[in-house]
């Protein structure tokens, strides 16, 4: 589908319950299985998982803007490394 992450996209796996040992691992999208509504992900270190979209965070570069608590970070660049669903915030490595 148009909204699917493209093949080769770098991702971080998060929020798995049944296979929690994979949380925090990185990988790359191999494909999207529309029938199962899951991404096939090649996990670094070996193996392949089929993962729901809500259990993946796309790794990408971002520019920090509009921070009031730490304005000195505004205009700086970093990499998204995770997402905290409870807080509704991305974790960015600066």
Q: Give me the number of helical elements.
A: 0
What is the arithmetic mean of pLDDT? 93
What value does the Rg take, in angstroms? 15 Å
Termini gap: 32 Å
Runs in which pLDDT lies below 50 for 5 or more consecutive residues are: none
- Estimate percent helicity: under 10%
Please summarize the sheet with the most strands. 5 strands, antiparallel
Shape: elongated
The portion of residues forming beta strands comes to 35-45%
Q: Structural class, judged by helices and strands?
A: mainly beta
What is the strand tally? 8
**Could you give the order of strands across the largest sheet?**
4-3-2-1-5
- Helix-strand topology string: EEEEEEEE
Structure, described:
0% of the residues lie in helices and 44% in strands. The protein contains no helices and eight strands. The strands form two sheets. It has a five-stranded antiparallel beta sheet, with no helix packed on it. β2 and β3 form a beta hairpin.
Short description:
The chain has strands at 10-13, 26-33, 38-43, 48-51, 56-58, 61-63, 77-84, 89-93. With 94 residues, the protein is mostly beta strands. It is elongated, with a radius of gyration of 15 Å.
Q: What is the topology?
A:
Layout: E1 10-13, E2 26-33, E3 38-43, E4 48-51, E5 56-58, E6 61-63, E7 77-84, E8 89-93
Antiparallel strand pairs: 1-2, 1-5, 2-3, 3-4, 6-7, 7-8
Which key features would you list for this structure?
3-stranded antiparallel sheet; 44% strand; mainly beta; 94 residues; 5-stranded antiparallel sheet; 8 strands
